[in-house]
Structures are given as structure tokens and as C-alpha cells.
Amino acid sequence: MHRKMWNICLVFITLQAYEYWNPFFKSCMCMLIGDGILTPAISVLSAMDGLRAPFPSINKSLVEALSAAVLVVLFLLQKFGTSRVSFLFSPIMGAWTLTTPLVGIYSIIHYYPSIFKALSPHYIVHFFWRNGKEGWLLLGGTVLCITGSEALFADLGHFNRTSIQIAFLFTIYPSLVLTYAGQTAYLIRNLNDHDDGFYKFIPTKIYWPIFIIATSAAIVASQSLISATFSIIKQSVVLGYFPRVKVVHTSDNKEGEVYSPEVNYILMVLCVAVILIFGDGKEIGNAFGVVVSLVMLITTVLLTLVMIIIWRTPPVLVALYFFVFFTMEGIYVSAVCTKILEGGWIPFAISFILALIMFGWFYGRQTKIEYELTHKMTLDRLGTLLSNPGVQRVLGLCFFYTNIQDGLTPVLGHYIKNVKSLHNITIFTTLRYLLASKVDPHERIVVRKMGLKGVYGCVIQYGYADSLNLEGDDFVGQVIESLKVHIQDFSDGVQCGATVAEIQAEISDLEEAKHAGVVHIRGKTRFYIGKSCGWFDRIMLAFYEVMHNNCRSALPALGVPPPQRIEVGMFYEP
Questions:
Q1: Spatial distance between the Cα atoms of 31 and 37, rounded to a whole number of angstroms
Q2: What is the tens place of the pLDDT at every residue in 1-18?
Q3: Where's the K+ potassium transporter C-terminal domain (predicted)?
Q4: CA distances, 347 to each of 27, 58, 148, 261, 481 (Å)
Q5: What is the distance between the alpha carbons of residues 426 and 449, in angstroms, rounded to a whole number?
Q6: Best exposed site among 288, 446, 480, 508 by fewest CB in 10 Å?
Q7: pTM above 0.85, yes or no
Q8: 82: which residues sit within 8 A by CB, 6+ positions away?
Q9: Greatest pairwise CA separation for the chain in angstroms
């Protein structure tokens, strides 16, 4: 009983913390996007830097230009989807995890066979005991040895637990240990080569094959973070935390494989800019160390929340996990944060800009939703307006789009009051996105009567692989047929008691309105920032309006012909 009460209190405290620290979690996601900018830049730049060893005449500027060119090609290929090139990923990473440990074994035997004594905790304790604060600062230099591990988790959802455990325990982990041990053995005998330890410890005879494999592996690692960035942006858009961008699903059976043209080209520009501006590698390395260590620390915090809220893990295990990993990663974060002035500020700058965009967009949307819920129209209010002799019912079929499930958009009242008319057949239409590839045709359109003459509700459900095109008579015909079936089924109910003549007259009105003409009406709302608004609302809502005017429409590409499209503008007063 006491344990159950403790769990309830812990969940309550955690939920309260999430509520109050929600901006912090959005900032954490911004740090992940920053990782998607820095990883391609430093991965490709480090790999291409291997050209300078066999060709000393190649300067740093040429390496930067070649790295930028590789990244531009990589980003231009994103529109074809990951599936088109993913068949190369496994052979490349297989070659990487096989060849580098073999070189490491050769280096261990040739330079320092007793290197594995470094695994003893005795040397770790002795190192910090002897170096003190300097040893703590040197931890910042070891962070780059564990960077890239976050890319391992980009697509883990596509595999089961057993395959992940086998791959990590029998390939990834041994490969990394042998590779780093081999580099360390080489550096013990060649202390002056620490600036380029990887390519220096490669034997001359196999240098070019390893260079090709290393460059290919860097491109694969970059691809994983680019794809992860697309997925994060897409989820943020769905949750209403990011301005709407175009999202294209490049796979018909994998919901996570997405591509966004706007995000892709912005990432490309930022990655190239990072290389050209901070191309010496030191500042990029510091920035990369900061962002990776913070991402790992953030992952620990978020996983702790998952263990408490979703998995309901025993508190002792949660505390043990959190203490061990948070302490270990917190020490690394504290060490790399000393590099903030030496390039570590880059991910913070990126995160601040992204967090500002997300907060401005979320604040504007929440203000708009609160206004719509406060001023939404009810069916009774709509009936009162339509009963006014000054409001005419004109001939035709109107699809009036609304996002409000319980009630009607305020734009409807604004429209009726000013136009003094409404089509005799008006269908309030809501588009509902489902987490499925395709929606069955018989479930695509859901209709209902709304209790007023000529007024109906319609929900169009679609998946990420569905082609949503409302152009032509096909869509209109499907809605009309669905309404006919619904009217007949609804009228057959005991509570209705409608005569056959009334049913036929209602169906005849549908056909007559269809032939008279079809129009699609949607609202286009803006904030009216008057003198009554406070300074905070003035700044944030003006910022939201700038983003809103330059982002994608809330409605997907419906294919509605321009002559049938009407936009009704309305000002919302916050």
C-alpha cells in the first residue's frame, strides 16, 4: 500500500514538473535538431581530412570545399527517400565494423600489446588522483570518442530487442573497443600525432580502402541524423510546436520515413555554413562534444520519465538508473561546458533560435485555440441566425472547413453576419489525419446530420500514403452518396418517423445543389493586435503572424480548383 501511494505521488510530481518545465523539454528537442546540424558537418569534414596525409599540399580550405560539396550532394539526394539508398548502409557499416578492429589488432600487436591493462579501474583512479582538476578538464577531450553513439538509436524501432543486443554485443562494442585500443597503442608510441590519431595509425598499404570506408560510414552517420531531424520536425508540426512545413512520406509502409524540402535545404545551408565558418575542426569538435553530451543527459532524463509514467518501474530501480547515468553524464557535461567560449556556444545558439520559434508558434496557436473555443458557434446559435429573415439560403453545395470538433468555427458566424446568406446545402468538413498508411475507402468519409435543414457534418479521414484530392466530381459524388445512405439509414430509425416523400425531397435537394455549383470555403484568421494588448502579446503574436504568413496552409494540398475556392478572413482579438 505504501509503495502504491509512493508511486502515485511520484507520478503526480513528475506530471507537475513536466507541466511547468514544458519549455525545457522543447529546448531539449531543439538540442537534438542541433545535433542533426553538427553531426553531418563534423563527420564528413573529419573523414575528408584524411586526404591531407598522403597529399600534404592539400590545404584546409580545399578539404572544407570538398566536404561542403559532399554534403550538398547528400542533401540533394534526400528527396528520393532513405529506402532508395538504404541497401548500401548495411554493407558500408559492416565493412566499417570489420576493418577498423582488424587495424586496431594490428596496431596493438605492433605498438603496445599490454594496452588492455587500461581497462583496470586502478588506472582511472590513479589518473584523477594525479591530475585533479586538470584530469576533469581532460574529460572534455574524451567525449569525441563516444560521439556518434546517439546515431545508433535513430532507427532502433525497426528491429527487435534480440537483434539489437546481438549486434551491439558481438559487433559494435567489440569493434569500438579494439579500434580505440589500437589508436591508443599507436599514440603511446607516437605522442605528437594526437591531432589526427585515426588516419595516422592506418598502415600505408591499406590507407585508401580505409579512407573510402571511413568516408562512406561518415555519410551513413550523417544520413541517420538527417532522417531523425525530419522525423522530429514532423512530430513537432503534428503536435503544434513548429510552423507547418511540407512533409512527404517516402515510403508507403514505413510511417517514419519522411522528407521535408524546406527543412532539408535549411539544414544543408546550415551544415555548409558550419564547415566554411568553423572549418578548422577545433570549434566544431567542441560544439559537437557539447551537443552530444547534452543529448545523452537529456535522454537519461526523458527515459526516467518514461520509466515512472509509462513503464511504472519500481522506484528503487528508477533511482538507481537515474543516479548512475545522470552522475556519469553530468560529469562529462560539466567538463565540456568549459569549452563554451571555444565553439561550445554554437549548439546553444541554434537551440535558442529554434526554441524561440517553437515557443512563439505554440503561444500563437494556443491563443488562437482559446479564442475559437470561447467564441465558437453552437447549433442553436446557427439555427437562430438562419431563422433571421435577412439571411438567405442560396442554391448550391458548400464545403465549409472547420477544425473544431465540438461546435463550429467563429468564422462561420462572421461569414453569415456579413454576407447575409448560406448555401442551402452546407457540409461542415473536418480533415482527420490517421497514423496509418492508407484508410479503407468505406472508412474514408464519415457523415452525419446536424439537426438543421440542409446542414451536415463530414469527416474525411486519410493516412500518410493517401492522395487527398478533392478536385472534380469524384470526391463530391462520394460525399453525396454517403449522405444519401446516411439519410436513409437515419430516417429508418424509430425516433425519426420521416415519410418516403420527405426522404426523397432531401435527397433531391442534394442532387439539385450539386448541379447548381460547388464551393469550398475556409477561414483565414489573423490576430488584431490593438492597444489593449500587453507588450508580451504584441511581440509574441506579431512574431507568430510573421511565421504564420510564411508557412504552409493548415489544410493539406486538396487540389480544389481556384474558381471553387473562397477564403474568409477574420480578425481575432486576443
A1: 10
A2: 333 343 434 333 443 444
A3: 396-572
A4: 11, 30, 16, 23, 55
A5: 11
A6: 508
A7: no
A8: 223, 227, 250, 251, 257
A9: 98
Which overall architecture, per CATH, does domain 2-343 show?
Up-down Bundle (1.20)
Q: Report the chain's C-alpha Rg in angstroms.
A: 30
- Summarised one tens digit per residue, pLDDT across range 543-555 is 999 998 888 776 6
Contact between 573 and 538 under an 8 Å Cβ cutoff? The reply is no
Cell reading at 238: 503534428
Bridge partners (DSSP) of residue 392 are: 421
Which residues, in sequence order, are CB contacts of 366 under 8 Å at separation 6+? none
CB 349 within 8 A of CB 310: no
- The residues with which 431 forms a beta bridge, in sequence order, are 460
Q: How many CB atoms lie within 10 A of CB 331?
A: 12
Measured between alpha carbons, how far is 510 from 501 in angstroms, rounded to an integer?
Answer: 14
Q: What share of the chain is helix, strand, coil (3-state, %, to 5)?
A: 70, 10, 20
With contact defined as beta carbons under 8 Å apart, do 463 and 437 qualify? yes
The domain limits of the chain are 2-343, 373-572
Give the DSSP H/E element, type plus range, for residue 474.
helix 473-491
Task: Order across the sheet with 565-572: list the strands.
Answer: 445-449, 455-462, 421-433, 392-401, 518-527, 565-572
Q: How far apart are CA 173 and CA 185, in angstroms?
A: 18
Match 513503464 to its residue by C-alpha cell. Answer: 311
